[in-house]
UniProtKB/TrEMBL annotation:
PROSITE patterns: ADH_ZINC (PS00059), QOR_ZETA_CRYSTAL (PS01162). The keyword Oxidoreductase applies. InterPro entries: ADH-like_N (IPR013154), ADH_Zn_CS (IPR002328), ER (IPR020843), GroES-like_sf (IPR011032), NAD(P)-bd_dom_sf (IPR036291), Quin_OxRdtase/zeta-crystal_CS (IPR002364), YIM1/Zinc_Alcohol_DH_Fams (IPR050700). SUPFAM superfamilies: GroES-like (SSF50129), NAD(P)-binding Rossmann-fold domains (SSF51735). The keyword Oxidoreductase applies. This is NADPH:quinone reductase-like Zn-dependent oxidoreductase. Residues 10-309 form the Enoyl reductase (ER) domain. GO terms for molecular function: oxidoreductase activity; zinc ion binding.
Length: 314
C-alpha cells in the first residue's frame, strides 16, 4: 500500500510518501480501508506517537494520522461488533501506525471506532473524532457545562474550537470566543454570541465573570484567563506545553487533560452531526501524496477547521 511515513520526531521534512507493508491484522483488530484521515499538525511532536504502549521507543518509520473515516475491509478472528462493508470513523490509538495510509488496523474492542455519520462525506467525518471528542470532554466531562452558563472558548476557529463553540451553544450556554479578525463572522455563524479578535483586543478588557474558559492556545492566554473567571469557575486547558494545575481559595480551578477515545460520546456526536445540529468544518482537502504539507509549525490552511487528507479520492 501507499502511506505517509515519518522518520524522526518533529520533522515534517522527513515525512515521505512511501510504498509500505500493509498493516498486520491482529485477532482483535479490524482492517479499515481508509477513505480520509484528519490531520493534527503537531502530531509528530507528540511523545506518545513515538512510543509503544509499554513506553519502549517505536522503530521508525511510523505512519501518522489518528483520525480516520473509511470502510471495514476485514475482521480479525476474535473481533466483534463490525462487519465487512461497515462505514466507520474514529480517533485511533496513537501508539500504533495511523490512517495516513490506504489501510489501518484498529482494535475493535477499545471504543476507537463508531459508525460514520451517514450524512457526512468521508473527509467531513475524518475531521471530527479527535477535535470533537476533545471539545466534548473539556466542556462536559471536565467542567460539566450547564445551560445559561457563560463560556469563553479560545481559538474558536480551530479544530477543537469550532466544535467547542457549537457544543456549548447546543447545550444552551452563552458563548464568547476568540479568533482572528478573518474568522470572526464564521465563528459567530457557528453560534458564538460574542467573538473577540485576539490580535486587536485583549479579551480581559471585554469579558468577565465567566463560568468556564476552554484554553486551546496556552502561554499567556492561560495565565490571563484567570482574571475573567468567576469564583468557583473552571479553566480547562488542552494546550501544549502543559500548564500547571491550579486551585485558588475562591474555588477557581485549572485542569489540563489529554483526550481519550470514547465510543459512546462519538456516537452521540455522530447523532448531532446527522441531525444537522453540529457541522464538521474542513478547511482543506489534500491528496495523501501531498500530506507532508499539512504537518509541522509552518503548515498553512486556508480557513477555519481541520485539514483532511483524501486517501480514496472522495
Ligand atoms: N490535550 C489534548 O488532548 C489535545 C487534543 C487536541 C488538541 N490539542 C492541542 O490543542 C491545541 C489546539 O488544537 P486545534 O486542533 O484546535 O488547533 P488549530 O486547529 O491549529 O486551532 C488553533 C486556533 O487558535 C487560534 N489562535 C492562535 N493564537 C491564538 C490566540 N493568541 N488567541 C486566540 N486564538 C488563537 C488559531 O487562529 P489563527 O488561524 O489566527 O492562527 C487557530 O484558529 C494544539 O496545540 C493541539 O496540539 C490537545
Amino acid at each position: 500500500m501507499f502511506a505517509l511515513r515519518a522518520y524522526a520526531p518533529g520533522e515534517p521534512a522527513r515525512l515521505a510518501f512511501d510504498e509500505a507493508p500493509s498493516p498486520d491484522l491482529g485477532p482483535r483488530d479490524v482492517l479499515v480501508r481508509v477513505h480520509a484521515s484528519g490531520v493534527s499538525p503537531g502530531e509528530l511532536d507528540w511523545p506518545g506517537a513515538w512510543l509503544d504502549h509499554d513506553a519502549t521507543p517505536r522503530v521508525p518509520p511510523i505512519v501518522p494520522g489518528h483520525e480516520v473515516a473509511g470502510v471495514i475491509e476485514a475482521v480479525g478472528s476474535d473481533a466483534t461488533g463490525f462487519a465487512v462493508g461497515n462505514e466507520v470513523f474514529g480517533y485511533i490509538d496513537v501508539h500504533r501506525d495511523g490512517a495516513d495510509a490506504e489501510y489501518v488496523a484498529v482494535r475493535a474492542d477499545t471504543g476507537e471506532l463508531a459508525p460514520k455519520p451517514s450524512r457526512l462525506t468521508h473527509p467531513e467525518a475524518a475531521a471530527v473524532p479527535l477535535s470533537a471528542l476533545t471539545a466534548w470532554q473539556a466542556l462536559f466531562d471536565h467542567a460539566d457545562l450547564q445551560p445559561d452558563q457563560r463560556v469563553l472558548v479560545h481559538g474558536g476557529a480551530g479544530g477543537v474550537g469550532t466544535f467547542a463553540v457549537q457544543f456549548a451553544r447546543w447545550r444552551g450556554a452563552h458563548v464568547v470566543a476568540t479568533s482572528s479578525e478573518r474568522d470572526r463572522s464564521f465563528v459567530s455563524e457557528l453560534g458564538a454570541d460574542e467573538v473577540i479578535d485576539y490580535r486587536g483586543t485583549r479579551f480581559e478588557d471585554t469579558v468577565a465573570e465567566v463560568d468556564l474558559v476552554l484554553d486551546t492556545v496556552g502561554g499567556d492566554t492561560w495565565s490571563r484567563s484567570w482574571d475573567v473567571i468567576r469564583p468557583g469557575g473552571r479553566l480547562v486547558s488542552i494546550a501544549v506545553p502543559r500548564p500547571p494545575d491550579r486551585d485558588e481559595a475562591d474555588g477557581r480551578r485549572a485542569v489540563w487533560f489529554v483526550v481519550r477515545p470514547d465510543v459512546r460520546q462519538l456516537v452521540e456526536i455522530g447523532r448531532l452531526l446527522d441531525a444537522g445540529l453540529v457541522r464538521s468544518i474542513v478547511s482543506d482537502i489534500l491528496p495523501l501524496a501531498r500530506g507532508a504539507e499539512a504537518y509541522g509549525p509552518g503548515a498553512r490552511r486556508s480557513g477555519p477547521g481541520k485539514v483532511v487528507l483524501s486517501v480514496a479520492g472522495d
